[in-house]
DNA sequence: GAACTGCGTTCGTCAAGGCGAACGATCGGT
DNA sequence: ACCGATCGTTCGCCTTGACGAACGCAGTTC
């Protein structure tokens, strides 16, 4: 800990410069907007120092960029998941089998699930971890899905997103239905 | 800056406790694994202090959790995008029309695009911002998509993800094809 | 060419973070 | 009941981040 750990600050250094130049503002201007000393910002962009979270937070706000963008550069590998061939790493998702894929090599923050429902079939999912977000895309058939109190009617190609932290449902309305579910979870 | 700024550290305090308890390890154990003093961790979970990035980074690694999960709790609203009804906020995506939705109220880090291709139609996309990640789900037809040097063959329900930072293609192989594209960008 | 504005860097000071040690509390085992 | 282990918190010390001021540079303006 003490001494090495260049990984985090390198990332920050790069991201900081990138977003500032992208916003088209000077170092001085950003420092002024964020309420951070020019000297501090200068050092950060030079890759020196271990900035406090509040400092970074202020910079993220001033840059109008999500905090995570300053500290995490997504560098995914190209991947393909075939319909019906998703690996069964985690066997159960709220009571029914589903395939899973982590798109990030380390961290495993995203799952891809296939959902296949028979005509009229209804599946209830209990709340997941707080902060879980679900993205659903209907491939074929028609579906009623979302939070139990207000599920949405969806057809092929329709997309919906909702919080996974509340009870939610997946139901085939007319005939067999398939969909892809992307789960971001904490 | 100096004095207030409880927003960030509150989030961190909660997230830290949450993930540690979820991992089922003690405060002492986590401190040992992360190479962080128990006292430091104790204070952080109490919501005191403005932790350095390296400290948080080490904790994230020890918890096997993406850094951003410690500092950002996604709280999305439920949304639905109908096939063919995606709002045309941004008219062009690499040269062709596409619908767009930001799932996060502030930050706008994710776009949803619909892609409709005629039989055999090929669309090339120039590289986007570094750090851009694309998620593609084929709804109907068949598609060849991915980085230009190694596009993947996809059928209905197939999923692929690849970096948007390199040139990539979307091509309908046999007959008209539709797909949904989720773009995360920096 | 002198004065001026804005840029990014460097320097010295001060407050705050991170550390180890010691502490009381809570269990389990003999 | 005693002892040991582990838990999470609190206490001084030292390191380090963040600050403001001053610096050197470049491009304008008069």
From TrEMBL, chains A, B:
Domain of life: Bacteria
Domain HTH cro/C1-type: from-to ranges: 16-70
Swiss-Prot/TrEMBL keywords: DNA-binding
Gene Ontology MF: a single term: DNA-binding transcription factor activity
Gene Ontology cellular component annotations, sorted alphabetically: cytosol
PROSITE patterns with a match to the protein in the record: HTH_CROC1 (PS50943)
Pfam families: HTH_3
InterPro entries: Cro/C1-type_HTH (IPR001387), Lambda_DNA-bd_dom_sf (IPR010982), RmlC-like_jellyroll (IPR014710), RmlC_Cupin_sf (IPR011051), TransReg_Diox_bact_type (IPR050807)
This protein's name: Transcriptional regulator, XRE family with cupin sensor
